[in-house]
Design a protein that fits this description.
Blueprint (H helix, E strand, L loop, with lengths): L1 H12 L5 H8 L6 H16 L2 E11 L28 H13 L4 E6 L6 H17 L4 E5 L7 H8 L3 E3 L9 H4 L5 H13 L3 E3 L2 E3 L5 H14 L3 E6 L16 H14 L4 E4 L3 H4 L4 H4 L5 E3 L11 H10 L3 E2 L9 H4 L49
Parallel strand pairs: 1-2, 1-9, 1-10, 2-3, 3-4, 4-5, 6-7, 7-8, 8-9
Helix pairs in contact: 1-3, 2-9, 2-10, 3-10, 4-5, 5-6, 9-10
């Protein structure tokens, strides 16, 4: 396909695609899927070889959130029967993190539900970061605590936080449809605060919430402009008891096309396969490794993931290797601060290309959603 040849050439040169080209990736047919994966795989290997970075989530505080994000099992009014607990102590969080590091994780992601941290919360997380670094000085620590207030990003950086995660989730035009208690602009501002404080920015999206192709392209292009170092791609886990429980819009093929589009738009960025991969990609997960260079190991915040050992076997069986702590994830030009957007292609102006006709919604697979009952906040060992 001329489209794929063009996208590969652009990706190898860090010249970014137009909106029309990004939309065309999402509109490719299932018959063309392997060609799309192979093309995006060339770009992935150019910048990251066959390495896969492992990340491990520690849910510091589960549930009890005052925000109304429709996709979230921890939201205000959620009836999802998830684990609910208040802050883990620093030694408890450090112990939980150690399980992921022992499983091969290079980065530990410390997450807490809520609108944003108080200054006391920042103190608590700072002590947790210090405890983790004392045990594993080479491990990267990413904090994900919600909206930041003035000075908090600098305090987290001083405590040893390497990165800060705050996802845009969906397009600016549709953001108000999924959340009303804060704004899209609030999220952008927090990512920028983290960058200004010297932390590596991590910001991504959630696919499968009923959005259009144009919405997906809009949020990925917005992320490209924001220029985070890592872009996690989540696929909605439709928890029973949340407003989006009936949104089963994804097929494995659709999920792979989305990942390929993200790779073409952000060719040299750490693209992370995040929540929902087991639910929506299922047996097609190994193909996704040709598109992403980073995954989460084991369980997620409130749902169970594939066993850590199964993740490691999948990576090896697919011909990839786990990235070690002695390896720099990002290409040299990004690690030096060059940024993804330092070489840009001309943007298409005007209206978007025709969107792919909506396929019949796949049958809901609620049996694939398993609420987490082990690991942080419980007396049961994690599955890392």
């Amino acid at each position: 396909m001329d489209l794929l040849n063009t996208l590969v050439d652009k990706g190898l040169r860090r010249e970014l695609p137009t909106r029309e080209e990004a939309l065309a990736v999402l509109a490719t047919s299932d018959d063309e899927l392997l060609d799309v994966v192979a093309a995006a795989g060339k770009v992935r290997r150019q910048w990251f070889g066959r390495r896969v970075k492992l990340n491990y989530l520690v849910n510091l505080k589960s549930g009890l959130c005052p925000e109304d994000c429709s996709y979230c099992s921890q939201r205000l009014g959620s009836k999802a029967e998830i684990l609910k607990y208040t802050w883990l102590k620093p030694d408890e969080a450090s112990q939980a993190a150690a399980a992921g590091v022992a499983g091969g994780a290079k980065r530990v992601c410390l997450v807490a539900s809520g609108r944003g941290p108080t200054d006391r919360d920042v103190d608590r997380v700072s002590k947790t970061i210090e405890a983790i670094k004392e045990q594993n000085e080479d491990v990267e620590v990413c904090a994900c605590l919600g909206l930041l207030s003035d000075g908090q990003a600098e305090r987290l950086r001083a405590a040893g936080a390497d990165a800060y995660n705050h996802n845009l989730n969906t397009s600016e035009a549709t953001y108000g449809d999924i959340t009303t208690t804060h704004t899209y602009a609030d999220r952008v501002e927090t990512v920028q605060q983290a960058q200004a404080a010297g932390m590596s920015a991590c910001s991504g999206l959630i696919a499968g919430m009923g959005e259009t192709d144009a919405d997906l392209v809009d949020v990925v292009f917005a992320l490209r402009d924001l220029d985070p170092d890592s872009v996690p791609v989540n696929f909605l886990i439709p928890f029973e008891g949340t407003p989006l429980a009936k949104e089963w819009n994804l097929t494995p093929q659709r999920a792979l096309r989305i990942l390929a589009m993200v790779r073409f738009v952000c060719p040299d960025v750490e693209v992370r396969l995040a929540g929902g991969r087991e639910v929506h990609l299922r047996t097609m997960q190994p193909l996704a490794l040709h598109l992403v260079n980073s995954i989460f190991l084991g369980d997620y915040l409130t749902s169970e993931g594939q066993a850590g050992q199964a993740d490691l076997e999948m990576i090896a069986d697919a011909g990839f290797e786990v990235e070690g702590t002695d390896t720099t994830t990002l290409p040299e030009h990004r690690a030096a601060g060059g940024g993804c957007g330092s070489v840009c292609g001309d943007e298409a102006s005007g209206t978007c290309g025709d969107e792919q006709a909506a396929a019949a919604a796949p049958e809901a697979r609620t049996d694939l959603v398993s609420v987490r009952r082990r690991g942080a906040g419980t007396d049961i060992a994690p599955n890392a």
